[in-house]
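ARCHIVE CARD
Drawer: 12
Card no.: 0347
Subject: one protein chain, sequence and derived structure
Cross-reference: see card 0346
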Amino acid sequence: MSLTLLTATELLAQPADDYMNDAQQQFFRALLLSQRGDLQTRIAEEFETLREHETSSDPADIGSAEEQRQWQLRQLEREKKLLDKIDAAVDHLARGEYGWCRETGEPIGLKRLLLRPTASLCIEAKERQEQREKHLRHAEP
């Protein structure tokens, strides 16, 4: 039996009562695994670029190369964090928890999940989290 995945348009056209049905879960699983594969390829390419780095004796070149290297390392760090979020989302799918806000238990929503498949909070909970973070940043001496 071959499974046909929904398109994003078909996904959004489904009735609200069908939220996180099998077809929707399959759609997001395929999306997350595809993003994971793309990300792993990019990370591997970045590591290869870092390994192939040539050293120069010109101090200006050394400084510029080191700045580029630091930027690449920061990029790899961000990509690694995203990879961890994708893995967590795939794990939530396997446990039947994907698509539900971890704070309120409410649906995160298909549109939000299409834009950010790793989302674990509904919009309202995310806004509250951002407000708390903003308040804490301004409260720090």
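Annotation on reverse: The mean pLDDT is 88. The first helix runs from residue 8 to 13.
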